[in-house]
Amino acid sequence: MPPKKRPAPKSQLAADQTTLDLTGSTYKRPRKNNDPAEVVVNPTDASHGASSISSSALKRPRKSPGDPQPSAFATATLPAAAISRKVARDSATTTTPGTATIPGAATAAAVDTTPVSNVIMWFRTDLRVQDNRALSAAAALAHEAGRNLLALYVISPQDFHLHDDAPIKIDFRLRCLEALQRRLDQELNVPLAVLMVEKRKDIPIMLLEFMKKWEASHMFWNVEYEVDESRRDTAVTHLFHQHRLSTRPYHDQCIVQPGHCLTKSETPYTIFTPFKNTWLHLVESHKSLFTPGELGFLESASDPCPNPPSTRDTLKPLFSDAVPASVPGFALPPHQKSLVASHYPTGEPAAHAKLATFVTSKIASYHSARDHPALDGSSSLSPYLASGVLSPRQALRAARAANHNKLQTGLQGVVMWVSELVWRDFYRHVLYHFPRVCMCRAFKPESEKVLWAADPDGSMFRAWCEGKTGYPIVDAGMRQLNEIGWMHNRVRMCVAMFLSKDLLLDWRKGEKYFMQHLIDGDFASNNGGWQWAASTGTDAQPYFRIFNPLLQSEKFDRDGAYIRKWIPELAGLRGQALHDPSGVLDKKAFEKLGWVLVLSVIVCQTRRYSRPIVDHKQARERALAAYKKALAK
Prior knowledge:
Oligomer: single chain
Largest sheet: 5 strands, parallel
């Protein structure tokens, strides 16, 4: 029997100590009114909001998981010590995605009576035409009103810097944006404008000016759940409301949107397995949860209606807007740009081609191949999911179709890969309900007491970053990351645990480094994975279970193909010596390990392999003692 719709979960604000103080803020919560603009909902019970691919009893008309949500202006007061992913955030307010963003949870009906002029779709991490809920709705409104649809993308270098976005990710996203711009132009007569906004605090006013310049009345977007992004959207919605302009946020990022997947006591899940069980039940019974004809969790948004050909004359200047080749301060070296472009071609066709290849030739064996980094057993879809070139619904529908429309039984590989998609949703739900994880804080408050090891000259961290720890599986992973901006998921777990346990360095240093280098950098999944490895997160690895990097290497890269590919110093070794060169080889043989790097005709550099920078057994005992003391075990 499918679960009934539930009221929204009660606020986690008190537990998280993240109530925002609006004192001195330039953004004040607007009064409720019946202006011609949208009625503002007062969210009196507002709640907040390691995968390899590295929201109710109130009735409301025609709403579904992807329907637009009334704007909410929740009040949030970060303690003085709190930081939102980076120190010294410049916003004083935040939108905490609460009841007003959960279907049926609003405390008042929100009816938009704003007269329709032109309509704008604000793209973010949803760079696709197909199965894009906000885009579909925006195009439908423009078509019904006989108006034009415009598309917009905002580039904020300050945001890139504050959020530690990797140059390789920005390069990939710009290439995806260029492909999206071409498709919107050629297939839909929709221009895509690119706004470069240096300071994030200027985004709301720049958007307002854009709306006025192009005589637009409505702006659509798909919701992002991180705290900074929610603050931005609060400011935009507030400013637009003052100018009688409408905002229409949609839920599109998750398959099951935050707030829908709750425990029987109406609280958020903090353990993955029960979350997964409820999630699967919701997805498989979605047709009975909503009124027939509405979008369910897995249903695709309709293709957007095109603009009439006359739009090309009406909005002619916008059609000549170009996507920049790079962003100052985030440019890639030419050789790396070319390498990444060959690994990850851009655009929806490329993403769907990779998805098709995976479900037809690799997904059946995913359960057995996924842990072996030398095998091409993963989907390689994480960059496309992170940038929204592919929707998670498209991925799940393809996997289900390959398994005779089953998600929980049938092919083991499909069942396992579906679980990875559930992990992706799970970490977004955690972020939504427990926003402290966006603020450089551990999910488990007690783990903040762990005393991390001193590294005064940064040599230990630097060795980890450069892949010079003396542990081949760790070094291979870090070198892969530094070269192509991606790392196999099994190896991600190994290197994360090595940093947080063997080196006993603060996991946040590793989390940040990953974000600065990953092409598929995704805050929720990256943070969740790191907190799992460091035993500080929800459903984390118990602190006393510490990976032995030598055993991990022997088990998952038995023949050493992965290690030899990324560590040329060890290319000539075989067997146990490849996994533990310092332990197997004598001093003379070990010192010969190396390779010659030709820098020029007359300059060569010999690179030697490093000896282990820590002894694993001793490091394990040190980590256990530190965690026991912090947790009073």
